[in-house]
Task: structure prediction
Amino acid sequence: PLLIFLSKRMEKKQIFMLTTATMCILISLPHILKILDWFPGNESTFLLVALFLPVLLGFMIYPVSGIVIDSQLVDIADEHEYRTGSRAEGIIFSIRSFAIKTTSGLGGFIAGFGLELIGFPQDAEVGSLPPETVTGLLAIIGPVYLLFYLLGIGLMAFYNIDKNRLERILKELERRRKAVPTV
Result:
């Protein structure tokens, strides 16, 4: 329902940027608020709600970004055919698959580097972390997480296929297909 509502009012690029920004802000919000000491303490009965509600809402929005990206990739395949005369969905979606795997690998590397940087002990026990290590974890899960997503959102600025351009591309592709005799 959210995607349908947004797609009637916005371009895919804006939908992606809005939903991704909203998602990452919601997910990082509890951690940022804890760093600022604006979050309920561990003894608060409101703690679980304050922690899980924004994270839940963020992950409920998350699928919209994936749907929009896949739709944009189809648009890119159409534009590629428009410019070159050949379809390239397989190549385009294999690049997406490779990017997902690369991101997962880099994410693990960066997380490991972050844990090393904050001095996270290998044999840590619940409740035994020094306050500076907890603050480091909060920084990784809060503002650093947010920064990486904002960089990704910034890359979307290079996507330049809007509804009007896509409509022109699709009409031209249809015209070309009708002009080609079938065997």
About this structure: DSSP finds six helices and no strands in the chain.
